[in-house]
Design a protein that fits this description.
Number of strands of chain B: 4
Largest sheet of chain A: none
Number of helices of chain A: 3
Order of helices and strands of chain A: HHH
Distance between the termini of chain B: 55 Å
Structural class of chain A: mainly alpha
Radius of gyration of chain A: 19 Å
Strand content of chain A: under 5%
Strand order of the largest sheet of chain B: 1-4
Shape of chain B: elongated
Strand content of chain B: under 5%
Largest sheet of chain B: 2 strands, antiparallel
Shape of chain A: elongated
Oligomer: heterodimer
Largest interface: A-B, 84 and 95 residues
């Protein structure tokens, strides 16, 4: 299962990189979203995907819980990547309003050059 | 701090007060305040003469950075005292001359004297320092103050060009010299010159010997304008004439000579040192004298003549270093070259200083320095003409002036060197006196041109920039007259220098050559019989006169008509090429496209990681310790891959967002499968909000069009993305295998066991977030808050052009 998940992550990263390399701002932002999915899945995979119990204490045997630490890390990461995505989205919106383009090729240099 | 230390840095201290003196005593020329200091210093250093004459030395120690072995140690011996007397003595005369030369009320005298004092202090520091690092600090201070003085009239383009050029070349040499000093430190563990000379075996035996020597020599050659680094000196002639007389004839350009003389006991004695210095010196000698002949500007002729004379001193230092090679009792015979070097050093300072001052007077009184416009000035300026006549005769080597004596010693040194019979000299040695002889002919020739084209011939008032030519004011003539008197006195009575100055200096250059109680044989005489040197001198005079007589014939050649040194062309082209080349490189890589930079990063990362992995054989694949794959998981995986792979091919923005959103929900489902309820919940919520945000924003963005990318770019993109993906996959698989192989267990047991006991919570993930690792959560909230504020300011804040927050 782990190997499979890692290969899946690799596919995600490939697609994300390809998206980030494209011309339109929308695709670049979608690419970053795919990057964060890849990162989250990789973290949980590297913690081990042993089938066990949900890490909520009850009557279960203590040794059967899955690792709770990667889950905590991912939760933090999800929130942060959401914040960044929201900011970048608004930035793209403002940039388009002011500059009138969403083409990365045209979004370069300054008028002082 | 002893009195010697205060004396050395006193020019710096006075320089602080010059602007005040300039501002509050406008009636008095600032130079008069400056004049006192070098005079006092000259008398002060003069008092050391009895000490060094008897072979004594003075060492004063003041710690500066003792932990690094850098101390402000001063060391007075024959060599440094000779230089200190030159610096202060000619300093007095130059300051006096400058008072009359820069009499104009418009001149910025405060700048001039501050720079000049900085230079004087730096130069005293160079020659008196015993510590290599301190020497280097003062050395660079001379470079900087020299550049400031060259660009004194900074509104002139040529002054700034000359200053920049001299700065580049001398600082380049200075830095390489610092490298050489560091290598010496590596070999001996000390920066003190005396201690290095005492432990010279460590240097000689080391494999760093040659690199250290070359680095130090590069510093000396650039400073002393040796071939091919001489090109800065003629351009430094844009400086005011007192500066040219002081820096570029008598003192700074001799700093390299000083350095070579100072490190001769460390590096000298081998064939490498002998040949590098002798050849560099002789090349400079002949190149400078040939170039000088075709110059048309008085100061340019003098500049190339300085280059050539410095080459002569340098070649003598090289030839004299062979004295270290011989260990038999006769090695005193080989020291004539060193004697000639020291003697000519003094002589050159006297006559070149007076010649520059005379050239300055001509410039000052006629308004031009071009020899094609000058002529017949003898009747109008008899005193200046007399000064020039004596100075030029000394430089050409006419008896009974001091230049004759040092020229004869130069020939003797070179003839002797050609007969050493070591270092392949039996094959090549005969060229040394021949080159010296040819160069002397050219020296004679340009001296004749200088005098006869300026003071004899036809007087052409219409070509000058003044209405009437008259002799300079007396104050301006004092300094050159003093120097010319010295030329004559040293010529007639050379022995007043012999035991007081020359011999102690020779002892410092060649320590350890003498056995106890012995003294160097300094015997300088006008008449040494009918030997080879005398015939050489007669030949120089005859051929020189012949060449001057036939000048009207050969002066038509193109070589004589052009003035530009070929190495100037090389320097200028190299400079332009460097700037253009770096611009081309910068433009090629800094394209302004974010995509390109991202590709650089990806490529670099992939190469670095793959290289490391292959080099340390890091690839691993573990088959055990894996969890089983349930059939229903395949369904999720396939759906996930299908939705993600589709995204780049979608050309409709709504579809693209929805498909990406679907992938996000599939991630949530995966979290559910992997027993992470909190994650699944958060992921669902966040994904929903994100999709809504995407929708909101993308409504305002233009429609997603089909990407119009060149196919070559597309292939590059594809290769980069696939290699990044492959890198992540391979590294993760290896890391996972490595992690299960090391057998370190997770710390999860601690959280699971203590979640209830210590924190009183049942949901372990939540307890970790708010209790065990609460700091993360707090900062994550901060991130969210900052993002929210950012969003608000992006939307709300609309500034107009040039408006500030």
């Amino acid at each position: 299962m782990e190997t499979l998940m890692i290969i899946l992550t690799g596919v995600l990263v490939t697609i994300a990189t390809y998206l980030v390399l494209s011309k339109s701002v929308i695709r670049v932002i979608l690419g970053t979203a795919v990057y964060s999915h890849a990162a989250h899945l990789l973290i949980i995979t590297m913690g081990g995907l042993k089938t066990g119990n949900v890490p909520i204490l009850g009557d279960e045997d203590i040794s059967t819980f899955v690792d709770p630490l990667p889950q905590a890390l991912i939760l933090t990461s999800i929130v942060i990547s959401f914040a960044v995505t929201a900011l970048v989205l608004v930035l793209a919106y403002r940039a388009y309003q002011t500059l009138g383009t969403d083409n990365m090729e045209e979004l370069r240099g300054s008028k002082y050059e | 701090m002893t009195l010697l230390h205060w004396a050395t840095i006193s020019p710096f201290l006075l320089a602080i007060f010059i602007p005040l003196l300039y501002k509050y005593f406008r009636k008095i020329h600032t130079g008069w305040f400056v004049l006192i200091l070098p005079l006092v210093l000259f008398i002060y250093y003069f008092n050391y003469l009895p000490v060094t004459r008897d072979g004594g030395t003075v060492t004063e120690h003041v710690p500066w950075v003792p932990s690094l072995g850098i101390n402000f140690d001063l060391y007075v011996d024959g060599l440094s005292l000779l230089f200190a007397l030159l610096i202060t003595g000619i300093g007095v005369l130059v300051v006096l001359y400058s008072i009359y030369y820069l009499a104009d009320k418009k001149e910025k005298l405060n700048n001039f004297y501050v720079y000049l004092l900085l230079f004087m202090g730096a130069m005293l520091g160079v020659v008196l320092s015993d510590n290599l690092i301190v020497l280097y600090v003062f050395w660079e201070a001379t470079s900087i103050s020299s550049a400031l003085l060259i660009s004194y009239w900074f509104h002139r383009e040529k002054s700034v060009y000359g200053a920049q050029k001299s700065m580049f070349i001398t600082v380049f040499g200075g830095l390489s010299m610092l490298g050489g000093f560091s290598l010496i430190y590596v070999m001996t563990g000390t920066f003190s010159i005396r201690e290095i000379i005492a432990n010279v075996d460590l240097v000689t035996a080391s494999s760093l010997f040659i690199p250290a020597m070359l680095f130090v020599l590069l510093g000396a050659f650039t400073k002393s304008a040796q071939f091919p680094f001489h090109i800065w000196l003629p351009d430094a002639m844009e400086a005011p004439t007192p500066v040219s007389a002081y820096l570029h004839s008598a003192t700074m350009v001799k700093a390299g000579i000083y350095l070579v003389a100072r490190v001769t006991p460390i590096f000298g004695g081998g064939a490498t040192w002998f040949w590098i210095i002798t050849l560099a010196g002789l090349t400079t000698l002949i190149w400078g004298s040939v170039q000088a002949v075709r110059q048309k500007d008085l100061k340019s002729i003098l500049a190339f003549s300085t280059v050539s004379q410095l080459g002569m001193i340098m070649s003598l230092l090289g030839a004299g270093s062979a004295a270290y090679y011989f260990n038999d009792g006769d090695n005193l015979l080989y020291t004539t070259a060193i004697l000639a070097a020291v003697f000519h050093l003094i002589n050159h300072a006297t006559f070149k200083g007076s010649l520059f001052m005379a050239a300055g007077i001509v410039d000052h009184q006629t308004g031009t320095r071009d020899i094609r416009k000058l002529g017949g000035l003898m009747t109008f300026m008899p005193i200046t003409a007399t000064i020039s006549l004596f100075g030029l005769a000394a430089m050409a080597g006419i008896p009974p002036l001091n230049g004759f004596l040092s020229k004869e010693l130069f020939f003797t040194g070179m003839v002797q060197a050609s007969q050493y019979g070591i270092f392949n000299l039996d094959t090549w040695g005969m060229f040394l006196p021949i080159i010296a002889w040819i160069a002397s002919i050219f020296t004679f020739l340009y001296c004749a041109i200088l005098f006869f084209k300026t003071f004899r011939g036809k007087f052409q008032l219409e070509k000058l920039n003044v209405n009437k030519v008259r002799e300079a004011p007396f104050g301006m003539l004092i300094s050159p007259i003093v120097l010319i008197t010295l030329v004559i006195v040293f010529g007639l009575f050379p022995h007043i220098l012999a035991y007081s100055i020359i011999e102690p200096a020779m002892q410092s250059i060649l320590p350890g050559i003498l056995s106890a109680g012995e003294r160097f044989e300094v015997y300088i005489t006008h008449w040494h019989g009918f030997n080879l040197e005398l015939w050489m001198t007669i030949g120089v005079f005859l051929i020189g006169i012949l060449l001057y007589r036939t000048m009207s014939k050969w002066s038509k050649f193109g070589f004589y008509q052009t003035e530009q040194d070929i190495f100037n062309y090389v320097y200028d082209q190299g400079y332009d090429g460097l700037i253009k080349g770096s611009q081309v490189i910068t433009r090629a890589q800094i394209t302004g496209r974010l995509r390109d930079y991202f590709v650089y990063m990806c490529v670099f990362m992939v190469l670095l990681i793959f290289y490391t992995m292959f080099k340390y054989d890091g690839f691993m694949l573990s088959t055990d310790n894996l969890s089983p794959v349930e059939p229903y998981m395949w369904l999720v995986l396939i759906a996930f891959v299908a939705s993600i792979v589709a995204v780049p091919f979608i050309n409709n923005r709504m579809t693209a967002i929805i498909v990406t959103g679907a992938a996000g929900y599939l991630v949530a489902i995966m979290f559910t499968i992997f027993r992470a309820p909190d994650l699944a919940l958060t992921q669902l919520l966040i994904e929903t909000v994100s999709v809504i945000l995407f929708m909101l924003v993308f409504v305002h963005l233009p429609k997603l069009k089909k990407e119009k990318i060149k196919s070559s770019t597309k292939i590059v993109n594809l290769i980069v993305s696939i290699s990044v993906g492959a890198m992540i996959t391979l590294v993760s698989i290896s890391a996972f295998a490595f992690g299960s192989e090391t057998g370190f267990s997770s710390i999860r047991e601690y959280f699971i066991e203590n979640s209830k006991v210590l924190a009183g919570g049942y949901n372990i993930v939540n307890v970790i977030l708010v209790d065990f690792r609460g700091l993360d959560t707090m900062l994550e909230i901060l991130v969210l808050a900052i993002a929210a504020l950012g969003v608000i300011s992006f939307i709300k804040l609309r500034l107009k052009e040039g408006e500030d927050v």
